[in-house]
Structures are given as C-alpha cells and as structure tokens.
Amino acid sequence: MEEANKIAQHLLKKRLVACVNIIDPVHSHYLWPPKKGRIEEAQEAVLLCHTLESKYKDIEKEVLKIHSYTNPALYAIPVSHVSKKYHDWIVGELR
Predict the structure, then answer these.
(1) What is the pLDDT along the chain (95 residues), one digit of tens a residue?
(2) What is the CA radius of gyration of the chain?
(3) Contact assessment for residue 32 and residue 40, using Cβ atoms and an 8 Å cutoff
(4) For the domain that residue 24 is a member of, what is the CATH number?
(5) CA nearest 43: which of 30, 62, 59, 32?
(6) Number of domains forming the structure of the chain
(7) From 80's CA, which of 34, 44, 87, 90 has a CA 20 to 30 Å away?
(8) Are 13 and 56 in contact (CB under 8 A)?
(9) How far apart are CA 45 and CA 82, in angstroms?
C-alpha cells in the first residue's frame, strides 16, 4: 500500500490525474520471469487513475520512474460514457 500511495500522490501533485482509487490487496497470479513459465503469486495493489487519454504517456513515464517493478502493468481502459459534470471536473484539475 505504501508504494501505491506514493504513486498516487506523485501523479496527483503533477496534476496528471484528478483522482486515484487504490484497491488493495489484490492477489495476483502470473508467469515470471519472462519465458520461464514459472507461476508466481503476489499481493499487489491496483490503481484506477481518473484522467484523460492525452495524459497516458506522461503517466506511464512518471510511474516507470518510481515503480519498484521493472515491468508494471500499465494500461488504459476506454470509458464509453461519463457525466459531463465529472468530465469537466477532471479537465479542470489537469495540467
């Protein structure tokens, strides 16, 4: 949770996101290291960042600078609908 909070605060201070939801713990099962086929398990956190598509590259750059993983899962999920008032709030908070 400490790393998740650090990343959330960093992105908020840089105004790349308007809000971050942290879901912790998440129990992850994954293949690691690459091409070795070993199944690993870990307790992790998921951060849902409320932002705009145009901020993705900047967010990715910042997270990669401070995340402890060499290959953190970073991806954007398209949102098909959002209320105008909420969207306007997000736009107003970002730089």
Answers:
(1) 899 999 999 999 999 999 999 999 999 999 999 999 899 999 999 999 999 999 999 999 999 999 999 999 999 999 999 999 999 999 999 99
(2) 15
(3) yes
(4) 3.30.70.120
(5) 30
(6) 1
(7) 44
(8) no
(9) 25
